Amino acid sequence: MVRTQVVKAAVKNDAGWPRGPRGDIIFGHLRHLRRDRLGFLSSLARDYGDFVPLQFRGSPTVFLNDPVLIETMLFRRAADFSKSNLSGFFHPALRRLLLLDDANSWFEQRRLAQPALRPDRMPAYAETMVACAKRTCAGWVDSEVIDVAASMRRLTLDILARTLFDLDLAHIHAEAPAIFDAVLEDVGARAFNPIYLSFLPTGSNRRSRTRFQRAEALIDALIDDRRRRLDGRPDLLSALIRHRDENGRELSNDALKLTLIPLSFAGHETTSMALTWALHLLASHRDVQAAVHAELTERLAGEQAAHDDVSRLPYLGAVLHETLRLYPPIWGFGRQAVRDTELGPYRIPAGTTVFASQWVLQRDSRYFDRPLEFDPSRWSGGLAGRLPRCVFMPFGAGPRRCLGGTFAIVEAVLVLATVCARFRVAMIDSSKPELEPLITLRAKGLRLRVERRV
Description:
Blueprint: E1 9-10, E2 22-23, H1 30-35, H2 37-48, E3 51-56, E4 59-64, H3 67-76, E5 81-82, H4 92-97, H5 105-113, H6 122-138, E6 144-147, H7 148-165, H8 169-172, H9 176-190, H10 203-228, H11 236-242, H12 253-284, H13 286-300, H14 314-326, E7 333-337, E8 341-343, E9 346-348, E10 353-356, H15 358-361, H16 383-386, H17 405-422, E11 423-427, E12 434-437, E13 441-444, E14 447-452
């Protein structure tokens, strides 16, 4: 990693905190975070410990790398912290996508979406997941070099649309995957820009607005079409359209989008990145890939993977866990104190932003032997049960933990099982990906060769 230099003004505080690194007078440490996000956060933990004061845009900030203090923030003192107060750090469109401007709206949207993600719905979803994965594999040619990230994003968006919304986006709007992908890249690229002004009529801002308007228009068209053709469908989109509030009113398109947009953008993106990194690691470790193939041959015996097979493929599950440990799709998260509070021995004044990073915690030698090595076997001895509660948290933790975590695990295991039953993945000379920590941890430039097994 590139070690980030910090210069100029020292962090000052009157809360009895330890000294943090020096930062820029105007932007504090934001420019350093933007220049090398993962390297900067790793250097904080290495050089300053588990509680590191920082400064972003004049706001007091703490980088937290202690799982006990993180657990306190996310569970025991969850009411003292809000995600909505972080809205000033992000592109205004992202604030709305992630419900950051309303401290209470996330709970209502979670309540509306929860029935569609119950465990009893997973077996039916699993059939769709495998069918979509088989279609993706059918489009690959033996020894073809593929753009892994793009392929996995198209696949997971297809799965999400078909399972939760009963939509075939490829037939309804062929441009949909490209629109959603462009919006995600735009949001991710701007998220930590220290001088981003969305109201200026620049070419970049105009392109950004156009992308969001196209995405929103597409979703509006899909909602309007479903309103005309409900047909008793049981999917989430249809259920939301049939929903009535306590006054008997239906949800407006804007209200529906508060549930649909976060699921559409975040739901497929995180799983696609997990699959992308898993395939990269399998291609980089042929012995692990061979062990996966052996397990699939033994457990599936040539049959198509199904929901019950998720628990019958422990080694493949361990590969996924190890992938999520080394390359967590959500590499960091933050909360802001809405009132004066405490985390362990530290007083946290209202308005303080507290930031933590799965990337840093999950590569910490205090919790993982040989933390930078890819070793799925580490999970076979009950490691997950021995770890402190907030060390391994690829789907977050606390009340706002990702609602679709189970859905994502089932999807990732079944997609990997379907792909690996049919293909080997192999590195090519230029296939080393570049880490791109945008909203998710993207693998820029990853290309692999797919070699047919059967």
